[in-house]
Amino acid sequence: MMFFSPSFGCVCSVAGLYFSWAFNLPVGGTIVLTMIAGFMMIAATMGVRSAVTA
Q1: What SS3 state is found at 48?
Q2: In 1-54, where does DSSP find H-type helix?
Q3: In angstroms, rounded to a whole number, what is the distance separating the alpha carbons of residues 31 and 53?
Q4: Which superkingdom does the taxonomy of this entry point to (predicted)?
Q5: Which helix (DSSP H) or strand (DSSP E) does residue 24 occupy?
Q6: What is the C-alpha to C-alpha distance for residues 29 and 22, in angstroms, rounded to an integer?
Q7: In the predicted model, is pLDDT for residue 54 greater than 90?
Q8: Gap between the terminal Cα atoms of the chain
Q9: What digits encode the pLDDT tens for the residues 32-52?
Q10: pLDDT digits over 1-33, tens only?
Q11: What is the dihedral of CA 39, 40, 44, 46, to 10 degrees?
């Protein structure tokens, strides 16, 4: 967990910067939306994983 959290933040920040540059969007909002999308993907994956093991 101590390694995953900063890594997730760095990856989402770089991805947000790239999407901001590629689509000419504001940087801050794009980074936030990228982190929200990443969190939703992880939450969905964990939900599916817990449903399969139950």
Answers
A1: helix
A2: 4-23, 27-53
A3: 33
A4: Bacteria
A5: none
A6: 14
A7: no
A8: 23
A9: 999 999 999 999 998 887 778
A10: 799 999 999 999 999 999 999 999 999 999 999
A11: 10
